[in-house]
Amino acid sequence: MHGKTIGPRVELRKEFYEATNQTFHMYNMNTFLEEFSPDQGSISSDILFEISELKNNVDMKNADLYNKMIKERIWKDWTNEGTYSLAKMDSLKRKINEQMAALRSLDEKYGRNKPENIALEYNNITVKLKQNLKWFEHLERQLDDQQKNLLEIIYTNKFDNINKINKN
Hints:
79% helix
């Protein structure tokens, strides 16, 4: 079918032949009906058409179910990643607020004339604050990208496997 062999593996066919001394044939529904023995009577084209339509309906339902399953999986993965990003962002917000409060406290207590050890601590807090702000912005962009990707996937139905199912 479409250049691919469909059916049991060769070694299973050999095993079947050795056990039963009969060859094994496997057909899809349309091929079986087309190859149906003439002495059994002919099959009307209406029946062949109806069976073909039935197969197409089943294939469409399978594609719809697969589509739904993929969307649910993507949603689950996204919510797990999104939950992690949101939790990390909340943690960073607390750290940022604590660092800003520490800087304000040092400014109020010492102003511009800070002793050397306090100035070093102030600089360390400032460096960590900048790092946390960059990380927070990165997580915001990542979360935004995840949302965009999720919406694109859900609304455009760009699933390779579904397209393959629909082609068969």
